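Review form for a predicted model. The reviewer records the input and the model, then writes brief findings.
Reviewer: anonymous (R2)
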Amino acid sequence: MSALPPPALPANKPESVRRFVLRHLAADLPRVVWFMAGQVAFVGLTVASTRLIGNAVELAGRETEVATFLVRFAEILGVFALAVACRWLADRSINRHTADAMATIYRAGFEKCQGFDTGWHADAFAGSTARKITRAAQGYDIFVSVSYFLFVPSILLVLITAGTIMDDSALAAAAMLAGAAIYFAVVGWFNLKRVMPLMKEAFAQDSRITGELVDVLGNNAAVKSWAMEPGEQERFCKTVATWHGKIMGAWNGAVNNGALSSSLSSIILILPIAIVVIEARQGLVEAGTVATVIGAGFVLRGWLGNMGQGMRETQNAVSEMTELLALLSKPNEAEEDAGLAEFRPGPGAIRFEQLGFRYAEANGSVFDGLDVMIEAGQTVALVGPSGSGKSTFVKLLLGLYRPDEGRILIDDQDVGRCTRASFRREIALVPQDPVLFHRTIADNIAYGAPGATREQVRDAAHRARLDEMIQKLPAGYETLVGERGIKLSGGERQRVAIARALVAARPVLVFDEATSSLDTENEHAIQQALAQAMSGRTTIIVAHRLSTVRHADRILVFDRGRIVEDGSHEQLAKRPGGLYARLLSADREQQAA
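Model under review:
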């Protein structure tokens, strides 16, 4: 099953959930028809068995031969067996449908959320987002399962039983239908108006708990470093206390709904039975009809006794799906870029033209009319004080943010007119804080080049001064690095990121403080490896340690969002009173200290 499109209606409306479920059902229509037909057959045969039992009861009052009873009992057992077979086939079918649909929801939710821009991810709890995706898939399972195993058979049982006894007792049939209608209306209204709002609030708080758990536990090292365990405990306890109040209100509402459901279902059971018993005493119906109504009534009572819980679970499932629908209704980068051109690979010439940009939460602009040209194959360093615009320059180049004015061209192609994914595939990034996945070292090195051979991975690791360390590990290149690479040191993580860039044959390389966590010996050796990797590629180096940029073809000196100096190390170092010269002097003093 392929990923389905997001709902057209606002995600906070129940109608959007209905359409969401119906789209998944329609995508698997043959199997849906099959398991619904099996359910109809199962309920029909169940009612038929009660009718056969009723006929046997009628025979008990007559002089009937044993052989006749045996035939009747064989018929009843045959109907039971056929009902079980129909249910078995139908249940297997719905299992396959539900598993397929949940897989589709997982894929669609993952694809949607990973496509959101950097700003969205900066504001969202990763754990909470993951919880919304998983709960939506599980919510679909609950919604369909409860409907199939509880709602549909209950409704069918009422309709088929009422139709079966209509000729014998129209009054009992009418009582059964009216009672069921009142039951569904009252219990449904109570759930919708009294229970569901409380459940939605509880689920929202539950998502917050998950988000805070992942956020704090994922940053455990920082918590311990600052000895902030008591503060985090206090903060989390407040969140739990809020959840506790919400969930208690929701659960108590569910208990009230259960009591209401049990009371009404008893009335539905008793009233038709009372009617046929009175009619039987008056000679208007046979004992078999009484037995049929009693048998069907108790079967129905068994289903309806769980109806309140089923409605609660269904409405919980609606709440869970609603959270994901809110995300699916929001366009991500791929959808925003739909219709844009695919970037055509080239040698990697970069040009910023009259670029203007400001962060949404900032008071002033970072760039205002920025112009810069970087030729293909050049190595260009970006230096300057903190906050001068170096990192923003890289983020704009990567398309993590869109410029407010002007344009960015790579190989004379306006990247604003190209899909972001297509031009990002031309850039290899080594960030200051490398991101590693809880996968093997080999997988992490080859991340930007999935087709890389083991020989290419080993070569990159050797050039990044990693191979010797990897060989000492018990599993070698198959060693798992832990969540966020926690099993490796900061320097080792950076060398993995460098090896990743060396494997990826991309025309533009971006090194954002790529050697900041390395000691002097390793930095010198890796600089030589990087010099080979940078040959023939456009390379941008963001650095605070100026010793790492001496051999750059050009150095762009940023200050307050402007490029105030542009030249080689030799040219800028000799410029009296220049910002680069001052930064170089401060760097030398720091190194000497």
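Findings: The first strand starts at residue 350 and ends at 357.
Further findings: The two ends are 63 Å apart (CA to CA).
Recommendation: see findings above.
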